[in-house]
Amino acid sequence: MARTFFPTEKYGTKPATFSLLPFRFMRLNSKELLVNEAGEFLFAPSGTVQDLAEGSVPINSELYLDLKAKHFLYDEASSPLFDLLATKIRTKFDHINGGTKLHIFVVTLRCEHSCDYCQVSRQLTTRGEFDMTPATADRAIEMMMDSPSPAVTLEFQGGEPLLAFDMIQYIVPRAKRLAKERGKLLDVVLCTNLACITDEILSYLRDERIKVSTSLDGPAFLHNRNRPRRGGDSYEKAIEGIQRCREVLGHEGVAALMTTTAASLEHVTEIIDEYVRQDFHSIFLRPISPYGFAIRTRHRTGYEMDKFVEFYKKGLDHILEINRGGYRLAEVYSQILLTKILTPHSTYYVDMQSPAGGAWNVLVYNYDGDVYASDESRMLAEMKDWTFRLGNVHRDSRASVFTGEPALKMFEASCNQALAGCSDCAFQSYCGADPVYHYATQGDMYGHRPTSGFCTRNMSVLKHLFSRIEENDRDVMRIFWSWITGSAPRTEAALCD
Amino acid sequence: MGPASSPAQATEIALVQFDRALFSEEVVLKGCYWLARDFICEIATADSASIQVTIKPRQSSSVEALPFAKETLIQSVSDFALREKIDAKTSGIRDLLLAKAFSEAGVLEDAPTGTFGDKIEQENPQGMFKILGSC
Questions:
Q1: Best of A34, A90, A419, A444 to disrupt the B interface by mutation (most B CBs within 10 Å)?
Q2: Residues in A touching B118 (Cβ below 8 Å)
C-alpha cells in the first residue's frame, strides 16, 4: 500500500537565507566534489560551488537538502549543530590521541638476504657489533612505556631479527612485565623473512602470542629475483615458513607484505594470484621506498610513480574481479583510504596521517640506541644522513626526544593543513604529510606537491577510488564495505533482505 | 571582466592576463604552482589593472601542450578565486569548530576562550543538543 506524507511545509517554514560551513572542493568527472572539515563528501553538479559562494542555491531543491545534511551549509531553521560537527572532526583526528603507539626495535642489522631494494645497509651475519645490547634494550623498553598511549605495539625489525633471537627473548618478558606494571596493553609483532624459522622459535612465538609479518613479493620467479639469498631459495623458504607458522600460530598468525620493484610492474595479476594461491585475504600494493640502500640501487629497482599508479589501478580491477568470484581479498591501501572516506573514523596507518605519523605515532629504536622518527628516518641514517635522529635512549628521555631540534623541525612540516598545495586540497582529510619522504626525494621536508611522488600516488589513488564511489556500482560498493568492516561481501540476497 | 588570454606572441610561450579586480595575486600564484612540473610561469604586473602570466614549457614538456596549460591555468585560478571567497565566508567558523573539537579532546594545555556551544540548540528544550546530551 502506498504511503502518504504531510507536505514538508507542515514541519516548518522554509528558511529565507543560508550560511556556509567550511569545505574544500575539486572538479572530478565533470562534477564538483565537496568535502567538509570532518571528511564528509558530496558529488554536486558543476556550478554548485559558485552558487554557494553567491548564495543562490535554490532553497527548495534536493541539492540544498543534501548540502544541509552533509554540513556544507546551515540556515535559520537548522542551526549549525556545532557540537555534532566538532565531534565528527575530533573523531577524524583520533589518531593523534594518546601518543606514540608503534615502537620499532631494530635488534640487529645482520641479514642473510641481499635484496636490491633493501632500505637498510645490511651487515654480514657474523658481525655482533650490529646487534642491540641488553642495556640499550632496557632503556628502549623504558622509553616505549613512557608513551602516554594505553596500548602500544612492539615490532621487531632488522636486518633479520631472528638472527638475534636471543635479544627478542630478552626483550619480550621485560616489556610484558613493565606493560603490566604501567597498566598498558602490549602487542608484539615480528617482521621476518622466515628463512631462519625453527620449531623452537615457532613454539616461543605461539607461547608469547607474537604475530608474524613476512615478505612475499609474488610468484617464485619474481620473489627470488627481488630477494636474492645464497641458494636462491627465498621464495621456497618463505612459503614453507608461512605454512609452518599457520600450523603453529593459526591461519591469522602470519601476514605478508609485498614491495613493487621495476621487475614487478608487468606482473600485478601474477602477484595477486600468488596471494590467493597462498590463501591470504589481504594484499598491500606498495611502491618501493626511496630510502637508504634502495637509493643506491634505484637504477635497477626504481620507477616513476605514474607507473606505480597504473600498476595499482590494474591490480585493483583484478582484485575486484576476484572478490566478485567469491574469494574475499582486500587491497590494504584502498581499505585504509576507504575507511577515511566512507566512515567518520581515521586509521592508525602511520604513513598517511596529518600530523605525520613519524614520532607522534611511531618511534624507532636502533640497535645502537639511536631514536628515529620512523623506519624511513633510520634508513636515511644508514646513508649517513642523521636529520631525523631524534636522540639516543642512553642520553635522552621521551620528553627531550620530542622537544629537541630535529623533532621540532620535522613537526613544522608535519601538518598538511599548513602545506602549500595541501591546504586547499579537497583530499586533505584523507591524506597526510610526510616530511621524511619529501626530504629524501626533494631535499626539503615541506616538499613540492606538483613534483612529489607522494602527492602523485595519493592524488591518483584517491581520484580513482572516488570515481568508483561516484559510479555507485552495487558490486563494487559491497566489496569496498566488506573491506572496511572486515566481513565477507554481502550477497545480493542478503542485500535485499 | 575575466581572464584574458591573448594569442601566443611566440610559438614557445603562452600569455594569460588576469584582471586584478577579480583575481588576487595569491590565487594567480596558487594556479601557477600546480603547473610547475611541466611549465615555468613568469608572473609580472602588466599594468595597474592586470597580472600577466607567461607560460613556458620545461624540457620535459612539449610546445603542443601549451594550449592545455593555458586552459588549465585559467580554470585553476578561477577555482582558487572561488576557494578564496568560500574561505572568507567560513574561516571564522572553521577556527571555532577546530577550537571546540580540540578543546574537548584533552590535547590542549589551555582551554580556548569563548563560548563554543550551539546556542540555538542549547536553548531549545526539544533540540538536538538535549538529545545528544542525554545519550
A1: A90
A2: 79-83
Q: Which three cell numbers stand for residue A84?
A: 555534532
Give the list of residues 6+ apart from residue A140 with CB closer than 8 angstroms, or none.
A103, A105, A132, A365, A369, A393
Residue A100 to residue A250: CA distance in whole angstroms: 29
- Inter-chain touch B97–A20, beta carbons under 8 Å: no
Q: How far is A51 from chain B (nearest CA, A)?
A: 10
Cell numbers found for residue A327: 574469494
Which residue numbers of B have CB closer than 8 Å to A's CBs? 30, 33-37, 75, 79-80, 82-83, 85-87, 89-91, 93-94, 96-98, 100-102, 104-107, 116-118, 120-121, 127-129, 132
8 Å CB contact of A450 and B98: no
Enter the C-alpha cell of residue A291: 630510502
Contact B34 A84 (CB under 8 A): no
Contact by Cβ (8 Å): A328, A342? no
Q: Which of A49, A52, A83 sits opposite B117 (nearest CB)?
A: A83
Query: A202: closest CA among A249, A253, A250?
Result: A249
Q: How far is CA A354 from the centre of its chain?
A: 12
Residue A298 vs residues A35, A228, A374, A473, B113: alpha-carbon distances, Å: 37, 16, 21, 39, 53
Q: What is the DSSP string of A284-313?
A: ---BPP--HHHHHTHHHH---HHHHHHHHH
Query: For A354-431, where are the E strands, in sequence order?
Result: 362-365, 370-372, 389-392
Which of A79, A95, A427, A451 would best serve as a mutation to test chain B binding (most B beta carbons within 10 A)? A79
The DSSP code for A131 is B
Cβ pair B97:A85 closer than 8 A: yes
User: What value of ipTM does the predicted structure carry?
Assistant: 0.88
β-bridge mates for residue A186, sequence order: A152
The dihedral region occupied by B34, where left means phi > 0, alpha psi between -120 and 50, and beta the remainder, is alpha
CA atoms of A233 and A224, how far apart (whole Å): 7
Tens of pLDDT along chain A (497 residues) come to: 567 777 766 666 677 789 999 999 999 999 999 999 999 999 999 999 999 999 999 998 999 999 999 999 988 777 657 788 999 999 999 888 888 999 999 999 988 887 776 655 556 666 678 999 999 999 999 999 999 999 999 999 988 999 999 999 999 999 999 999 999 999 999 999 999 999 999 999 999 999 999 999 999 999 999 898 888 899 999 999 999 999 999 999 999 999 999 899 999 999 999 999 999 999 999 998 776 545 555 555 557 889 999 999 999 999 999 999 999 999 999 999 999 999 999 898 999 999 999 988 999 999 999 999 988 898 888 888 999 999 999 999 999 999 999 999 999 999 999 999 999 999 999 999 999 999 998 999 999 999 999 999 999 999 999 999 999 999 999 999 999 998 766 544 433 33
Backbone angles phi, psi at B25, to 5 degrees: -60, -35
Among the partner-chain residues B33, B75, B118, the one whose CB lies closest to the CB of A450 is: B33
> Which residues in chain A have their CB less than 8 angstroms from residue B86's CB?
20, 22-23, 25, 49, 52-53
- Residue B49 distance to chain A (closest CA, Å): 24
